[in-house]
C-alpha cells in the first residue's frame, strides 16, 4: 500500500502544476468518508472533476506531462461485492492539453494520437480485485489509437460524500496505469521520448 501511494505521488510530481498540487500533497491523500460508506449503485463519470494526466521522459532530461479531460462513462459499484464492479470510461482525444500549444496540435495529428481518425480512447474493466481496505486492481481492455490491449489500473479510494452542489451521492478515486505507447501504434520519437507512459487518474463519479 505504501509503495503504491509513493509511486502515485512520484508520478504526480511530473504532472503540470495544478494536477501535481492536487495529487501529491500529504493532506490530499484522503478525502471524506470511508469505502464502506459508499452507496451501492450505478454511477456516472463526473466529467468536470475527472482528469487523466500522462507523463513521459523527455529525451532522458526531464519528465513532461499533459492531460485529457471531458471523460464520460459509468461505474457499477457495491463495496460489499467489489469483485462485481464494472467500469466503462471514454475519453475524447481532442481534449489533450500541455503547456505548449504547438505540441497540443502535434499530439492531435496523425503523427501521434490521430484524433481525427481515432477520436476516443476507452477503458472497459474485465476484473476487479481488492488488494487492501481501500485499494483495488482493475484489469481491463484499453483501446487507444485503434488498438486494444490489456491494461491495469491500480486504484485507491479517495473519498465519498453527497455533493453539496448536485445533491448527489458521489465517490472519488486515485488511479495509476503504466503502458508502452508503441504497443498502441504511437511510436513518434521512441526511444528519445520514452515509450513507457504513466497515466495518473483523478476520477469522480455521481450516483444516478
Structure description:
Residues 42-206 form the Lipid/polyisoprenoid-binding YceI-like domain. Keywords: Signal. It holds the Pfam family YceI. With 208 residues, this protein is mainly β. The protein has a single domain, classed as Lipid/polyisoprenoid-binding, YceI-like (Lipocalin). Helices cover 13% and strands 46% of the residues. It contains three helices and ten strands. The chain has an eight-stranded antiparallel β-barrel. Strand 8 and strand 9 form a beta hairpin. The longest helix is centred in the N-terminal third of the chain and has 11 residues, at 2-12. It starts with a helix and ends with a strand. 31% of the residues are buried. Residues 1-27 have low confidence and may be disordered.
Features:
single chain, Lipocalin, globular, mainly beta
Helix percentage: 10-25%
Poorly predicted regions are 1-27
**How many strand elements?**
10
Structural class: mainly beta
> CATH H-level name... which superfamily?
Lipid/polyisoprenoid-binding, YceI-like
For the sheet with most strands, the description reads: 8 strands, antiparallel, barrel
Mean pLDDT: 88
Q: What Rg do the Cα atoms give?
A: 17 Å
Portion in beta strands: over 45%
Principal-axis shape equals globular
At CATH level 2, the architecture is Beta Barrel
As an assembly, this protein is: single chain
The domain count comes to 1
The CATH topology is Lipocalin
What order do the helices and strands follow?
HHEEEEEHEEEEE
- Name of the CATH class: Mainly Beta
